[in-house]
Amino acid sequence: MADINIEDNRLKLFIEEVKTIQDIIKRMAGNSFNIKTWAITLVAGTLLLKGSDKHFFIAFIPLFAFWYLDAYYLRQERLFRKVYDWIISYRPNNDDQIFNVNPMRFDNQVKSIFQIMYSVSLLPFYGGIFLSILGYMVVSKWMSILGLFKCISICYIGGH
Contact, 32 vs 74, CB < 8 A? Predict the structure, then answer.
């Protein structure tokens, strides 16, 4: 009877530990999604600001800040996935280190933040925003150049 209670308690602790790690991973993924929405919102907002000819460059500040932050949370998520894998494989046969969810013991097994920034999951999203900002800059400058040519042609035609 006592052995059944001990095994039952071990199973309950194991399930709670796994749920804790799953909640942490879910929260990291939610943070990553929120960062992406904030990045789009702030980049679009800064592009709508019209102050000077160089207002485009302000849009790169939230882009790179949120790109770095998103990579940070993605790295944290990957670290906690390592913790999850370790718990699933180690915990059924061992009772030590219960609720030890410190992910830093797997630090050397996960890529760095800068490597994650250029990963397949982040580069297309933030690279697309980067190219969009550059496209917006080119189109805006092109319109200015076209306006300049139009002004010159009017002045030239008007002079004759």
Answer: yes
Q: Give yes or no for a contact between 137 and 131, defined as CB atoms under 8 angstroms apart.
A: no
Quote the CA–CA distance of 33 and 133 in Å, as a whole number.
21
Amino acid 2: pLDDT = 64
Backbone angles phi, psi at 105, to 5 degrees: -70, -15
- Exposure b/e, 85-121, CB count within 10 A at least 16 = b: ebbeeebeeeeeeeeeeebeebeeebeebeebbeeee
Question: Is pLDDT larger for residue 10 or for residue 39?
Answer: 39
Query: Residues 80, 85, 86, 91: is their CA dihedral positive or negative?
Result: positive
pTM, rounded to two decimals: 0.81
Report which secondary-structure segment, H or E, holds 14.
helix 2-48
- For residue 19, give the 3-state DSSP assignment: helix
Length of the chain measured in residues = 160
